[in-house]
Design brief:
eight-stranded mixed sheet; about 35% helix; about 260 residues; single chain; three-stranded antiparallel sheet
């Protein structure tokens, strides 16, 4: 079974397709997975592998490890474009997410003031005031919306809470408007006998309506690039993504980045 990618709290830096030279921060366990989604395409595997034993890293430990890494990188003259919260699950599930973000911004300002702070979130915790407030302070608040149609979103993202809907996600994301970037994974395939394809016209039309309602600063679209736990998924070609991106940009007037 495919298992977690990151076995430390701070990882990288790596070269991100979308963000440049990125130092990663994993706020979930380093030997298991905790997430409010169980996405078919998650590079960290399915939630069934379990939460592990190490738990959420304490705020103080995250700050200490991050400062040590940034200090060493700065002294060595290494470049850094972004500090990215990602990892083995949903970062906003961390019990002191807001405090960690505040610490990160202060440490970033000390060593790499031109680097951006980015959070990749699945949008399930945006109705929490503390989470929303913290996300408003970062440079790149990147929020997932893989389908504007709940049935399709449930097929792809498999939320732990079956009452979570695309309509709720869109309403919560819309509270941020230009203070967010919306990220959409396009894919096709099948899982447990059910066909999945969010590239068809009705799906793209629904997403366009959602993007127009949200009015984000930018839209990021991409497809799978690594092994996925659901092995029957198919990558959408760069050419097809470019065509979808052109259609979205034309219909919304919002910049679209294709990765």
């Amino acid at each position: 079974m495919q298992t977690v990618l990151f076995h430390s709290t701070i990882f990288g830096p790596i070269r991100s397709r979308r963000l440049g030279v990125s130092l990663g921060v994993n706020l979930t366990p380093d030997d298991g997975k905790i997430c409010s989604f169980d996405c078919l395409y998650c590079e960290a595997g399915f939630n069934a592998q379990g939460p592990g034993t190490t738990g959420f890293p304490p705020r103080e430990r995250v700050a200490r490890l991050l400062e040590s890494r940034l200090k060493n990188m700065s002294e060595a003259g290494e470049p850094l474009d972004v500090i990215t919260f990602s990892g083995n699950g949903e970062p906003t599930l961390h019990p002191d997410f807001g405090g960690v973000i505040a610490d990160t911004i202060a440490i970033r300002d000390k060593y790499y003031p031109s680097a951006k702070v980015s959070v990749l979130s699945n949008s399930t915790r945006l109705d929490r005031d503390d989470v929303a407030a913290a996300l408003r302070t970062v440079d790149n608040n990147i929020l997932k919306l893989d389908s504007a149609i709940t049935e399709t979103m449930h097929l792809i993202d498999r939320p732990n809470n079956p009452a979570f809907t695309s309509e709720k996600a869109i309403a919560d994301i819309a509270r941020f408007g230009g203070q967010c970037i919306v990220q959409t994974m396009f894919l096709r395939g099948e899982f447990e006998g059910r066909k999945i394809d969010n590239t068809v016209g009705t799906e793209v039309d629904a997403l366009i309506d959602a993007y127009n309602r949200i009015r984000p600063r930018e839209i990021m679209i991409y497809s799978i690039d690594r092994k996925t736990p659901a092995e029957s998924l198919e990558k959408v070609s760069r050419e097809e993504l470019e065509r979808i991106g052109e259609r979205i940009a034309s219909a919304t007037g919002i910049p679209v980045q294709v990765a």
